[in-house]
Write the structure tokens for this entry.
Amino acid sequence: MFVAGTTFVGHDWSTGSMSNQLLFEPRRARVWAAKALALVLAAATVSVVVLTAYWLGLYAVVRGRDQAVPDGTLLACLQHGWRGAGIAAAAALGGYALTMLSRSTVFSLGLLFGVSVAGGLLLATIGPRDPGPVDPTINAQAVIADGTTYYVEPPDKCYRDNSLFDTDPDCSAQGARSLGEGLAYYGVLLGVVGAASVGSFRRRDVP
């Protein structure tokens, strides 16, 4: 969906059609918002339909094989998919906002690749002991799964005294990230990029 958001508006910049659109609607903030709304609604609708169909299909297969399904399991799975659809819609909006800021599909896709590959390597090598607050994948999992746990490197004292693994919370090697924390992480990212994107689009010349 990030790629869809990027190419959705990248085409307008690469072909020069953005200036033609502004001839019909000169209020740039309104143009930015209209495009963003259309993209988010399309991404959310497609994602909800696909993920709902996926979980309902699995449910039908399980029931078709006369397997028991615990109460609440189907609803929990559907909610899992709907939260995933929210992440997908947010990714589409992020790709759109970034491309409206950079005016380059190549730049946005390059940044996505860099964050996915180089960012992961950087976090693994010189990142903080607790990666939860900064790792995009952990925060995405926290949103989709309504909270998640992840590995945290124990401090050196835990290895010097192995008994601390049973008594000291710092040695548990497990961190937790809540749904709210994941939403806040992506909300801040989208807010910063979105504000910069709108500000740039309103002030910079459009070729």
